[in-house]
Amino acid sequence: MLRHSIFLLGEFTRRDFRGRYAGSILGFLWSFVQPLWMLSLFTFLFSTVMRISPGIGERTSNFAIFLFCGLLPWMAMQEGITRATTAIIDSAGLVKKMSFPSELLIFAVVLAALLHEAIAAGLFFLVLAFTGQFNIAGLWILLIAVPLQIALTVGLGLAAGAFHVFFRDTSQIIAMIMMGWFYLTPIVYPMGLVPLQLQPLLELNPLTVLVTLYREAFLGGSLPSLSFLMPLILSAVLALGAGLWLFNRLRPAFADEI
Asked: What is the span of the domain harbouring residue 29?
């Protein structure tokens, strides 16, 4: 049973990864073009137009590098949660006709998003090497950051995907939440620009912790204190547990609703 589930997960992930660019001219190259476009757009807007810089205390003075460290986990989470929201509805035929663990559809889109992040990270390594800021000393921190990121994404994706079967407005609500979450996370601005009285609130944001871990990992930093990590750890554990419980609770009614 486990082997069969792993096989199905691999097939669903491969289908999602390949199907996204099926029929397009650039095909797989979009995996490189899209992160480069987002990086260029935000760099121009925030460093050239608004003239925001990483500021004192950050591990780099290069805004593009500072920005991309934060965009990497964000893009994977945003894509994973957004696509997980509609994953069950998008595969309605399979859910109705086949008896299989439908949560694999959620896992597959999250893994596909992680593959795209890995491609973007490989591109980022080249940029770091070119700018002379490549430092492997902190890369081990990703061994902590990535599993927590996956747990948080899967948990929220399971809950959103289950809700969307019954409430079709869920995808619109998730889009609004993700937009707000992006700007409430110090991705395009350094924490130093946030008023001191608001900084403790932003540190309770699990994505603030995740972005910090990525910056420490890619820029040769060190692991923050356990107290700083707790919002991310607790959010990941709670989201995964609650997401699995809710999905399993609502799954018997999926076929009737879709």
From this structure: 2-257
